[in-house]
Specification:
Length: about 190
Amino acid sequence: MILSEKFWENKYKTNKIGWDLGEVSAPLKTYFDQLINKDLKILIPGGGNSYEAEYLFNNGFKNVYVVDLSKTALENIKKRVPNFPNSQLILGNFFDLNDTFDLAIEQTFFCAIDPNLREKYAYKMKDLLKSKGKLVGLLFDAKLNTDHPPFGGNRKEYTAYFESYFKMDVFTKCYNSFHNRQGMELFIKLTKN
Ligand SMILES: C[S@@+](CC[C@H](N)C(=O)[O-])C[C@H]1O[C@@H](n2cnc3c(N)ncnc32)[C@H](O)[C@@H]1O
């Protein structure tokens, strides 16, 4: 299946964005609220309309980057947060990024890529994070679809991708998921080895 730039851009253009929460997700907000260091360089890959980027930026985290294949999604962020630096809204492919970060945030991006790329995602994430950098966020713990996103998976499968590069600090059922995702998500906090 080709999950191209056109595929995703079309979703935003036609407003077929069922994954979009319209607000910062509670589990991520809870995590953000206990971060002390506002200088952290944070990546939100496949961030889409990224209410998380907006929340972080408006709460003093100025070093936040969103990479996404959809121009419309990035423009939407800019409309809501005019001061968000253009250079931190990267129109492009996560797998082509060439930079390093302290923290990467996952939410419905991993489930949106072709499952054949999951191993590559873990490897790329390791490369993009600085030493002791963290990958934090949510992964679906549910079967979901096999021929189009969102693609499902489970803890056992995911562990196999990440365990060689990361220490699994947290990898547990999420207790405060959005109402229609309750019981279907894992909250993860992985630290690069
Ligand atoms: C299901 S949406 C999730 C958006 C956002 N994370 C959220 O929670 O609302 C998946 C997003 O990943 C983006 N995307 C898919 N493949 C990508 C890639 N290889 N590189 C960058 N962005 C990608 C899509 O354009 C889309 O915005």
